[in-house]
TrEMBL record:
Matching Pfam families: Glyco_transf_4 (PF13439), Glycos_transf_1 (PF00534)
Record's keyword terms, sorted: Transferase
InterPro entries: Glyco_trans_1, Glyco_trans_4-like_N
Lineage: Bacteria, Candidatus Portnoyibacteriota
PANTHER family: GLYCOSYLTRANSFERASE WBBK-RELATED
Domain named Glycosyl transferase family: residues: 174-327
Residue ranges annotated for the Glycosyltransferase subfamily 4-like N-terminal domain, each copy included: 72-157
Biological process terms in GO annotation: lipopolysaccharide biosynthetic process
GO molecular function, one term: glycosyltransferase activity
Name this polypeptide is given: Glycosyltransferase family 1 protein
Transmembrane annotation, as ranges: none
Keyword field contains Transmembrane helix: no
Amino acid sequence: NILPRLIESAPDIEWYLFYNDRNELKKKYTWLNYPNVHLIHKRWPNRLFNLSSALLGWPKIDNLLGGVDKFFFPHFFVGEVSKNIKIIVTFHDISFKYYPQFFSIKHKIWQKFSRPQKKAIQASRLIVDSHSTMNDLVDLYNIKSEKVKVIYLGVDDKFRARMKTDKEIVQVRRKYNIPSKIILFFGTTEPRKNIVGVIKAFAEFRKLNPEYHLIIAGALGWKYKGVLKEIEKTKNVLMIGPVDNKDREFVYNCADLFVYPSFFEGFGLPPLEAMASGIPVITSNCSSLPEVVGNSAIMVDPFNISEISFVMKEIIKDKKLYKSLRVDGIKRAMEFSWDMCADKTLEVIKEA
């Protein structure tokens, strides 16, 4: 969402894009053919590249690109640039500092080798998705707030309210075997997302609403065995797996209610996409999520299963509340755009 907008907004800048993979790019983006875009494709084995970068500080990516003035990391990762290069780094969150138990050994090793604190200190400017993440960098990494720019993410125009009788929605229901009345969770299956809590809350909700199903959409991530065990002992819970990008907006519109009580987020796109789609949202009252949803969703304590279940029942039962959440959610989502995100990102890059 960001890169093509940055390139199109700044035709006077020469953009050198570093791509390291043994395979060619699967998608052929039209903006890669722009005269000011240069894709530099290297085929280093990623493990060797990461190990060499972390232990030896080599190779310098700017040298592989033939020399640059500034380097933009859209996410901190294992990679080094020369000392004279101005660095702009985006931090989406540092959840691993708060909940290390939620991450696999592989993730912990990657985080250690990435040295995010070093990246934050070295950077000329930092971009974050929320004030919550900015406060985390200031508090945990001792970064000066003046160095950090909060730039909210956007929501694509394709996420909008639709009639449940639309043919695309009917087709998506058939494709993913989605029943008629559903509570939806959308995201990677990993401990931080609190999916076990969602399932337990749904089990209580279903005692008074047996006609509903809980749909868990998204790819399997890590440490998901607890989720699978909880599904086995709970009726009407369906895991539909990864959703094709072209189907995402229609899957949201299949839902009657969206539930996302994550323990920690740096931003939280799924609640915003659900609101844009006109679906009432329940989300957490912690980390960045209150910034995103404002007063247009119901916020709960993610550790309180009874509270989550109670709010689910109330929204489904109270038609006036249901309607107001739909209307307010759509209005709130309109405040976030990828164009605005890209424009502000470009300002930071130019100022660095």
